[in-house]
Every structure is written in structure tokens, then in C-alpha cells.
Amino acid sequence: MTILTLEASTASAKAMIYDSEKGPIKLITEHYDKARGDISAYDADDVYDAMISAGKKAADGFQPDVVALGGTWHSLLACDENMQPVTPTYSWAYVGAAKDAAEIRANKELTNELYNQTGCMVHGIYPLYKLLHLKHEGMDLKKHYFFGQGSYNFFKMTGERLTSESMASGSAMLNTHDKRYNEMSLSLVGINENQLPLVTTYKESRPLLKKVADELGIRPGIPVTLPHPDGALNQVGAGALEKGIMTLSVGTSGAIRLSTDMPILPKNKSTWCYLAPEKWLSGAATSGATNCVDWFISTVNSKRYSYGDLEKMIQNREKAPVFLPFISGERCPGWHDSRLATFHNLAADTTIGDMYYAVLEGVLFNLYHCYNELINISGKPDIIRVSGGVCKSALWLGMLTDIWQADIEISDIEQASMLGAAVLGMYTAGVITDLTEYKVVTDKILKPDKKAADFYAARFEKYMKAYNSFE
User: Fold this and answer.
1) Residues 6 or more apart from 258 whose CB is under 8 A from it?
2) Minimal CA–CA distance to 168: which of 182, 184, 189?
3) Measured between alpha carbons, how far is 456 from 274 in angstroms, rounded to an integer?
4) Which percentage of the chain shows pLDDT scores above 70?
5) Burial state string for 2-29 with b = 16 or more CB within 10 A and e = fewer than 16
6) What distance in Å separates the CA atoms of residue 265 and residue 404, rounded to the nearest whole number?
């Protein structure tokens, strides 16, 4: 059984051929044309075309039985009555709706109701508040249809406006309790559910259109799975749908997640509650991760030194500055759209290596701050599985392990979210009858350096002092 997995991620489109017996066979990546937009707002058809291009290259020489779709949470685009895009796709990184969300947050009662109904804090990252922003900018929302990039890709491939419960749960427009579109959310922006894709479960699929099959070089009519977000797919691909397994991913953005049997919504609204296949996800996400590292390399560093060079230039970790990694505003745990990235305690003898160290540390401290919030409501996990760009740096991975002071399981599969989509593809094809049949064997476990505990506790205290100085 062969599955073609297609993913429209933040900065690139990816395609993987997965064999149900042999595992991943082939991976293709197509980076988006930056001339047509950045990661915050880009052309929806460019993204789709890049995904199809990657898929054609991956499928060359294969005849897949299923196409499985993945993407990202929180994107939004508007289409006309002919389903042609009239706006860019606004991704999770888009900050244009920050002011609109802040005005809603000023009403604490309304904020509490929306959070408790949807599991999403009132924040500009969510499509609901992007819609509110478009409305305030003069768009007549009643004349348009709305998609996320994932559901738009599905529509282009099947001709049907459908999305998954999981994808919709990151829109702030789905009621996390009954898994239906939330009346209060739709009323806030003045649209109806017919303008949105129909929400259904991961068990649904639709046949691939002949036109698209011809473009991919594969058979028409094979099932296409519902689009699912990379965060939920990561939980599937990491074998973490069972209780007590936390996934921690550090990619362009960062996230920690725990599967739960019911919605968990803390009073201080520091975390979110979305849906994974069959489960709820209690978690927290940060907007600053490897994008902060890339920003530092290209701007402060002006591409002079490599990652390895900068690691060698770290001179004084004890006196290194503190970095708040909010180059795209803050998501969890404080949800301050307007909070900006800053270096604290820069000194005359601070080196570029020390600043680089501070960036790596600040990204992890933001996630560790979220981790502390999450375990306060969910308890400590039995297992922590880490994936993403952090795994490519022994230094950064070691820092993570020492900050958490816990055993860390490392996934040897870089594309955990694509693997999760392949698992859904296997379910659709009948290879497995339950998603938990897929198991992950982890043979690499990192142990923390106990001697580093006091050092990182002191550094985290400085981070929190800088964090709490925000007004």
C-alpha cells in the first residue's frame, strides 16, 4: 500500500511517498516563491501549485493508493462565488488583526465566553479575528466564501468544500465541546456556516479529480483524506494519541501538546484546546522558534557566520543577554499580540556568539514557560517526545534537555507531521482499523545534566523578570 502525502507548510510545500510496509521512501520539498509574499501572507494558488509540483516529483515511478493532506492551523483566505481567491492566504504569522483582537479582549466577559466555547484565546492569530479585521477594513463578508489553505487545497483536488474537525478547531469558529461551528463566533463577524467548509471527521475522504490526477501523474478517483494541521498530525506521527505522552516540536514556530479525553480550559487562558483525530489536544504554541534563529542569522549576523561558527563564538553564557523571542508577537502563554522581541542586559563585552546563545535560550524559555503552565492543569507527562529543527543542533537539543531536567525522547523521523498524515492514509485505505495501532519505537533518549539545573533555573528567573517587565 502506497500513500502520497502532501503538506503545505509555513515556508514550503512537501511531498512524501510512504509505503505501509517499508515506511518513508521519498521526500520532496518545494520552497515558496518569496517574491509573491512572505510567510505571513502569500498567494493561495502559488502554495497549491508548489504542493502539486512537489507531489508530481515524489510520485514519479509510483502509483499511490491514497493521497493524504496536511497543512498548518490558523490560515484564512477569502474567495468569490466562483471560488477564486480575492485575498492572500493570511497565515498564523499575520499580525494585522492584533488591534481588532485587542479590542475584543477589553471585554473580559465576551473573551471568557469565546475562549470557553472555542478553546481559542481572543488573539489575532485566529481566522475569526482575521475575518473581523477584513470586515473593519471594509470587506463585505457576506459576499464571500472562506477557506484555510488546507481546505482550499482539498477543494482544488476534489471539488468539495470540506475540512476536518481538527483543522477547524484552530479557527476560533468551532465549538470545542460539540464540534460544530460556534454561533457566537459567526455572529461576531456576521457570516453563516454555509460560507465555510463543511466540518467532518478524519474518517471521511473524497475521490481525486481527473485533472489533478493528470497533473500529479497518478490514477484519478483514489481517496483524498481531509486536510489536517501539522500540529495534530505530529501527535499522530509521534504515536502520542495515548495519555501521558507530550510532544514538543520546535520548527518555524514551537508547540507542546498533550492528548486528552475531554476539553481542558484553564481560568487564566494560558493554553489552548484544539482537536486531534479522536482526541482533544491541550497545548500551547509560540510564534518564535527557528524563525528567530533565521532572523538573527540574516539580520544581526548579516549572514557572516554559520550556525556552527556562532556556536564556537559563545564566550560567556552566565553573562549572556536575555532574549524575548517575540518577533511575530506573543502567542502562549500571555497572548500579547503587541509584545515585541527584545534583548535585555546587553553589555560592551557581549559578543555576537553570546547574542546567538541568548536567541537559542530565549526560544526554549518561552516554550518552558508554556510547559509550566500546561503541567499546572494537566500534570507532568510520562514521556516527552521532541521533533523539529531543534534536533539538528546538538547544542540546542542539549540545552532543551538541561532546561527541562527530564529524559527527552528524540524522534529520528524529521517529518513527523507528514508521517501522521500517512497514518490517516493507512486508515482510509483499511491498512489499520484504529490510529493507535501505529506505534513509535524510540531508540534515542537524552538524559539531563543535573549539574546544569541551578544554572538554567537562574537564567530562567532572569528571563521571567524581563518577560514580566512588559507593559
Assistant:
1) 244, 245, 246, 281, 282, 283, 374, 378, 381
2) 182
3) 31
4) 98
5) bbbbbbbbbbbbbbbbbebeeebebbbb
6) 24
